[in-house]
Amino acid sequence: MRIAGIAGAPSLLGIVTWCALTIAGPTARCPVGLTSLGSRCCGEGQRVDSEGRCTGEPHRCSHGLRLTPAGCIGENDQVSLAGGLLRLAPSDWEAQGTVRSYEAWVPGFHLDRLEVNEARYTQCVLAGSCPQLPLRGEPGIPVTSITLDEAQKFCHFAGGALPSREQFVLAASGLSGRRYPWGDTGAVCRRASYGLRDGPCARGTSGPELTGARPDGASPEGVLDLAGNVAEWTIVTGASTSAGHVVGGSWMDESATALRTWHVRSVEATTRSDDIGFRCAYAAR
Asked: Does the domain made of 76-283 have the CATH classification 3.90.1580.10?
């Protein structure tokens, strides 16, 4: 094989790059412990049913997920986050003219490590504190198609509240203003569940992946899925209850731009969407 350089001569860099890609093959989409089954990442030993759900008892899960007969399920806890002066001043060219730079003092707080999954939400329904929702029937995936008010009801049941946008951004960007929750580079499929419907990470997916399944995408404090999987409800400080902000990007988004810590969408509080979920925040103890 002849690999042309800039002037038509063989390029050593081109040869090295081609050899590396040939040997390594395509970048792994699923984290260690999960296996790629069509457009889903399921526990090893599982299968995908006609509704796109991971079914059967797995014999291995990714790090941080618990093996259960119903599948791989993340066990949530609360992560303590120190407060400070949040400076939102995105330097990405995509943000120019669309994102307002501002500063806000954010007191310390606690935040769910994981997005609220169907297993946790079902506990609230059984307690009579949350309304029934059309769940997908896979306990480890995040709750979706939930309104802002319904998400608030769950957080009240859990002893907390929906995070403000400033709290969420502080958890994702830190006081240093990271571009992504894990750092400034590396928006790859093993770190974030995005581009699952029309690429680049998969095609034909109809819903999110397991909560907490991608430990490589954790923030320095260990909070997971702050970018991708489901966009998350946050409270707009000082705004009416008819509006909310969703942040973090989701499995539907095709561009890593949606994963940026400054990215936000304003939506009606009554919106129900397959790509919007939530987690809860709690007062510092």
From this structure: yes
